[in-house]
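Tutorial sheet, problem 5. The two components below are modelled jointly, 296 residues in total.
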Amino acid sequence: MEDLIETLKKQVIEQLNLAEIRPEDIDPAAPLFGEGLGLDSIDALELIVLLEKHYGIKLNDPKEAKEIFASLQSMSNYILNNKK
Amino acid sequence: MNSIISSYCKIKNNAIWINGKELVIDAKEVDLTIFLTGLYRQINMNYPKFFKMDNLCKLGMLAAELAIRNSVGFDKLEKDKIAITLSNNASSLDTDRNHLKTIIDKIQYFPSPAIFVYTLPNIVIGEVAIKHKFAGENAFFVSEEFDAELIHNYVSILLNNNDTTAVIGGWVNVDGNEYDAFVYCAEKSNFNLDKEEYKQIHSAEAIRQLYN
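Model answer (structure tokens):
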């Protein structure tokens, strides 16, 4: 779990071009959208691509996204339960 | 109503010119993205969204930022009356190619939304407008080469309209590592030119001379 979160931090920074943020700056429990990292709707689409590209997980129901991408913690939980 | 060019910025061949004076840059860099990022840090732009932009937007944002910062009083104008008119040759071709790389392999087919949103040249206008909260008219022209008459005519038409008091005009072009930006601020004026500040009458000839 810890390893996955550390990997996810690096992947999110790279995929979303968060050039001024270091992995240690990201609190796994902090919200990804709004406050926290302040991501936007395009970032949400990039996170969906990240899940498919790196973990083979295709998000079929967009309604799930809000819960899955609430934080890195919730994202890693979802990956562990759905990774192919 | 007459108009003046109240400031301009040129970025080309690793050199930056603001109102006729060269800005000394910290490092000469061959890679365009690294060069633009270095300039962003040098001028303390503090706008994290910059890193998500394609090179066309980064170049346009930096040229517009430097022109606006060095224009006397531009920040005091009504923002909903500031228009943006830009042009270039390569349209969004540089980013179109990057987008193509993400979709050319039918097995590793992962189109990136963050790249795709920049596959139009006029996005650079949107980025400048969002950053500076400008809400006036906007237009982006694609032409074979920098066309001073076209830009002058269009900017003049806008400035003759009551809905526009100032315009960000010019040329922002990126094609691989080839790049060229010339962005100027034009304002309505009574020609009360102040010798202490950079000001020039807005004409096609003036634009051509400043660009060259």
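Marking note: Chain A has a mean pLDDT of 90. Full credit if you identified this.
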